[in-house]
Amino acid sequence: MTDVAEQMQQQAEEFRTRYKAVRDEIGKMIVGHDEIVHGVLTSMFVGGHCLLEGVPGLGKTMLVRTLAETLSLQFSRLQFTPDLMPADILGTNMVVEDEQGRKSFEFQRGPIFTQICLADEINRATPKTQSALLETMQEGTITVAGQRYELDKPFFVLATQNPIEQEGTYPLPEAQLDRFLFKLVVGYSTRDELNTIVDRTTRRAQIVTNKIMNGEEILRWQELVREVILARHVQDYIVRLVLATHPEGQMSQAITNQYVRWGSSPRGAQTLALGSKVRALLDGRFNVSFEDVRRVFLPSMRHRVLLNFEAQAEGIETDQILLDILEKVPEKSEESLADAG
Question: Which of 57, 176, 288, 293 has the most crowded Cβ, counting Cβ within 10 A?
Fold first, then answer.
């Protein structure tokens, strides 16, 4: 048992070192936004997709592009616009002619055949086009004209969107939102950060990022994350947090019943578990703590909880409700406390 524990500890330390190497390399280009960078990297090491929301010009696209530059992975960028069609993303069958004049259909692959796909301003396109990503995000495959194509692994969709209140945008379908592991809200830079940004971007010095990691290593870390121990009582805490988002449910809170229309799906619980495991590894542990769960609660759940009209009328934000749930739901259930007594 001691040898196993030592091996686990070594793996955790190696993961922390390699994680820090990628994060430091991104830091050459991205100033501040530490939690946003951490959220994107967590999504990558879990094997999930990430949605970045914020007004234009905050560095969302630059972050994703810099991440791609630090990894030896194929990269493509899709600029979503109202006239973008599903075939522009997935590809289409084209008529081709050989040397003998015989014609046949040949599939021309779209830009989604990559490993890191930057879906820039995803809410600028219509829901029909947005939904073209559903199968790729869930299954890692594409089906065109009855033919199924496998995407190379690892595969990530990192999408950016402007706030829904802006003109010319389309809210993402709920089914697609649920397939994003995290939703990260990108805020403004501080005074010191803005000064650093101006220094870096208005002088002759050119910043070059180096490739730190490849796809094979990423897949290895994804397997390690799933081996982290999730104790039953911590898992039950995750389950109770998710159930607390269901209005009129067995664990619902007063604020949930008042302001929530739909709560989280089971994917919310899966996300909490996996995201917490990454946090544990970064803290040098091979088991998940309650604090690990709390730290990934907001990005895991804010896009999975839909508010009702009353919440919108009163200007209630999703994060307010989630923070209230986080405060009200105890770490240990009544059943576990009774067993302990």
Answer: 288
